[in-house]
């Protein structure tokens, strides 16, 4: 097998599948290349001489331009490659749609809810409206474990999947859209289908108190949400536990039943990437996305800054001109957000990304968007907006792992697929299934990784791997725990985009 991969016939940069040593000769698609310097696995090698100022091409698209002439066989990275990205720009809609044949939907075992989609977990969530009551929320979650044990004794046939608090530092001293973001995300989580019961815990004097959160709530099942204003309670712990008991009693009626995957929404996210992420894990997720959407289900792609450099691919896959315009606004609004803050648009690949072989934001973006598969874009969501249209959706949120994953959960995703080439233990409010881009990571971090996409480099076909991932998602949706759940790694982070009073 070749030790260098040429992804597209147009490419002038190949990807080293193993570490390459200076002076050795290697084969790439029948072309013999002499390696001019040591090149780590996952990094790029020049497949031809690239003149100063010429575009370097990977995935069939430019990922930047050469800062100096790069001879054939040389290492391509931050020392000789620079981004071509700029700020907000104009775009022209050039539809390039690939309609998929519909597939008969399979089922998972989920919890049907009176309002909204079905859940894949039956959990009790405690949501503080303001950071001032975080400690009370966490104390109630701790003491709630005792109530949970009692509920399991009283209702032995019921399935309870845990009591969890989601502390955050916001809810007061915010203004305008920034404050509304906090209210909207908390309201979204309050009606999430994975939560069989929700206690919204307020202080009483905050800007985003219970009365304000209520205004952002859609129609909901009143048996499943309780409110507690701590300043009005003589003993907030005692009253909170009483409300938890009420919620657990309501949740005792819930049972897993067959649910078609058309009721499933899955968030798509990557983080701590490497040079293999866009070759293995992300394309595997793309195949999964195409399968799920062909069965009437939904996938949600976010991380807008990590679309920069590949945005036209997504824009031209929009079903309508209206969706195209929404996508243009989403992209340009984020670029303006960077520039108004005095920050460079292209500053995204982290030290870990760069160490793994990703050089520019275009390089990252072209790999990142592989997660979207080939289906047309059916919906474009603002930050905090809930999913309403089946199929592939784009969601406005930053690239930060926990902020973006929280936004995916708030939009209605019951599960998040998270590809990584570096590894991470974290989890968001919903099961967060980690997909490694390389087998070495999967073997090293067994407590973190759920699925190994690195087998794509050792004989498994992309179609087979995507189908395996789809079956794994069905298992997780039917109750199998992800690593983040086993390790009790979960939390929320709300997008902060304004001043603090």
Distance between the termini: 60 Å
Main pleated sheet: 7 strands, parallel
| Average pLDDT number | 95
* Number of DSSP helical runs: 13
Structural class: alpha/beta
Uncertain regions: pLDDT < 50 for 5+ in a row? none
Strand runs, count: 22
Major sheet: order of its strands? 18-19-17-16-20-21-22
**Looking at the structure, what is the overall shape?**
globular
Helix content: 25-40%
Strand content: 15-25%
Q: Which radius of gyration do the C-alpha atoms yield?
A: 24 Å
Write down the domain tally: 3
Write a concise keyword list for the protein shown above.
501 residues; alpha/beta; Archaeosine Trna-guanine Transglycosylase, Chain: A, domain 4; Rossmann fold; 7-stranded parallel β-sheet; 4-stranded antiparallel β-sheet; 13 helices
Describe this structure in words.
It is built from 13 helices and 22 strands. The chain has 501 residues and is of the alpha/beta class. The protein has 3 domains: 4-82, Archaeosine Trna-guanine Transglycosylase, Chain: A, domain 4, CATH 2.30.130.110; 112-255, Rossmann fold (3-Layer(aba) Sandwich), CATH 3.40.50; 262-486. The strands form 6 sheets. Strands 18-19-17-16-20-21-22 form a 7-stranded parallel beta sheet, with helices on both faces. A hairpin with a 2-residue loop joins strand 3 (25-28) and strand 4. The radius of gyration is 24 Å and the shape is globular. 52% of the residues are buried. The model has no long low-confidence stretch (mean pLDDT 95).
């Amino acid at each position: 097998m070749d030790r260098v991969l040429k992804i597209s016939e147009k490419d002038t940069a190949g990807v080293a599948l193993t570490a390459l040593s200076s002076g050795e000769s290697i084969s790439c698609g029948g072309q013999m290349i002499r390696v001019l310097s040591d090149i780590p696995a996952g990094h790029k090698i020049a497949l031809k001489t690239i003149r100063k100022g010429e575009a370097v091409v990977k995935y069939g698209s430019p990922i930047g331009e050469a800062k100096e002439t790069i001879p054939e066989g040389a290492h391509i990275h931050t020392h000789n490659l620079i981004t071509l990205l700029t700020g907000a720009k104009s775009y022209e809609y050039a539809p390039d749609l690939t309609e998929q044949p519909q597939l008969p939907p399979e089922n998972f075992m989920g919890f049907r809810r009176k309002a909204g989609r079905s859940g894949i977990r039956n959990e009790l969530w405690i949501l503080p409206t303001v950071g001032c009551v975080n400690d009370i929320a966490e104390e109630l979650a701790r003491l709630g474990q005792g109530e949970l044990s009692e509920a399991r004794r009283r209702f032995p046939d019921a399935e309870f999947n845990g009591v969890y608090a989601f502390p955050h530092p916001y809810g007061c001293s915010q203004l305008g859209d920034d404050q509304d973001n906090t209210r909207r995300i908390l309201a979204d989580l309050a009606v999430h289908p994975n939560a069989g019961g929700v206690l919204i815990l307020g202080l009483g004097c905050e800007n985003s108190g219970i009365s304000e959160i209520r205004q952002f709530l859609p129609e909901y099942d009143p048996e499943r949400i309780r409110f507690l204003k701590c300043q009005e309670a003589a003993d907030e712990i005692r009253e909170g536990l009483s409300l938890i008991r009420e919620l657990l009693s309501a949740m005792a009626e819930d049972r897993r039943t067959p649910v078609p995957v058309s009721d499933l929404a899955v968030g798509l996210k990557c983080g701590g990437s490497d040079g293999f992420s866009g070759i293995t894990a992300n394309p595997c997720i793309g195949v999964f996305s195409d399968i799920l959407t062909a069965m009437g289900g939904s996938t949600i792609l976010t991380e807008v800054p990590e679309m920069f450099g590949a945005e036209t691919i997504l824009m031209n896959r929009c079903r309508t001109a209206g969706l195209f315009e929404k996508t243009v606004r989403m992209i340009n609004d984020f670029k303006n957000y960077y520039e108004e803050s005095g920050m460079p648009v292209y500053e995204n690949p982290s030290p870990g990304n760069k160490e793994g072989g990703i050089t520019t934001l275009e390089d990252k973006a072209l790999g990142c968007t592989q997660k979207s598969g080939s289906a047309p874009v059916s919906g474009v969501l603002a930050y905090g907006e809930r999913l309403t249209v089946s199929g592939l959706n784009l969601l406005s949120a930053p690239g930060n792992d926990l902020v973006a994953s929280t936004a995916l959960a708030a939009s209605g995703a019951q599960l998040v697929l998270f590809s990584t080439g570096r590894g991470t233990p974290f989890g968001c409010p919903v099961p967060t299934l980690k997909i490694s881009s390389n087998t070495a990571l999967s073997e090293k971090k067994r407590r973190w990784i759920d699925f190994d996409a690195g087998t794509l480099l050792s004989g498994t076909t992309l179609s087979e791997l995507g189908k395996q991932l789809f079956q794994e998602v069905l298992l997780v949706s039917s109750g199998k725990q992800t690593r983040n759940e086993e390790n009790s790694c979960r939390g929320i982070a709300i997008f902060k985009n304004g001043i603090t009073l």
